[in-house]
Amino acid sequence: MGPLQWGDVPTAVGALFAGGAAWFAFQTIKSQRQQIGEQRQFIGEQLQFMAEQQQNLELERGELRAAAEDRRTAQAKRVHMVGRKAGASTDGQGAETPNDHWIVEVTNESDAPLHKVEVWFGSAYVSAEVYEWNALWDRARTRGGDRLMQLVDLIGAGRVVRFESQHFSSAVLHNNPPVVFFTDGNGARWSLTTRGNLNPTAQQPGSSPPAE
């Protein structure tokens, strides 16, 4: 081995330190990249968790809204109305006369009373006669129990009331189907058709229905 060339020592030491610095910088960058990757993964997991939480909250809100809607409509959905045309008969010469009026039976199958109950035929005709009724009575029966006002203040749980229209011509009878209006135990006003269409309404008790 030849004598040590002292002039090469600083160069070697500098190269060693440079290599160490480069290795340290590489390790630092590698560590930072790993940390950034872990942070991105963590953020992604948190975002996914938040999205799942938001979805769960929306589902819970939907369920709460549905439950509230069920409570709001629970009593109204247990009110039933059956309407039929009546009056057809045979005259003295054997000719058949057409139906000329509506008969409507309103049944309160809920556990609470209904208030301010009335039946309108179209938007211009209110009931001509109103009677207490019994679901077991024959429909052919011409009269029910006590006669009531056109605007029935209260129909108790399980009770039936029969509403009859005035006598109409065939065209008027056909063009003015019955609609029952009532107020439930929570003070909400509803309309119900013979087809079972139940809707909240702005109609005020004793006044004609608002225009469609």
Task: Please describe the structure with a list of short key phrases separated by commas or semicolons.
212 residues, alpha+beta, 2 domains, 2 helices
Your description of this structure?
With 212 residues, the protein is an alpha+beta fold. The protein has two domains: 7-73; 79-200, Immunoglobulin-like, CATH 2.60.40. 33% of the residues lie in helices and 27% in strands. It contains two helices and twelve strands. The chain is rod-shaped. The mean pLDDT is 86.
Please outline what is shown here.
The protein is of the alpha+beta class and 212 residues long. The protein is 33% helix and 27% strand.
Kindly name the structural category: alpha+beta
Pattern of helices and strands: HEEEEEEEEEHEEE
Strand content: 25-35%
Number of domains: 2
- Which topology of the largest domain does CATH recognise? Immunoglobulin-like
Number-wise, the strands total 12
The name of the CATH architecture of the largest domain is: Sandwich
- Helix amount: 25-40%
Regions with pLDDT < 50 over 5+ consecutive residues? none
CATH class descriptor of the largest domain = Mainly Beta
In DSSP terms (H or I, runs of 4 or more residues), the helix count works out at 2
- Whole-number average pLDDT? 86
Q: Which word captures the global form? A: rod-shaped
**What is the radius of gyration computed over CA atoms, rounded to a whole number of angstroms?**
41 Å
Straight-line distance between termini: 113 Å
What profile does the largest beta sheet have?
A: 6 strands, antiparallel
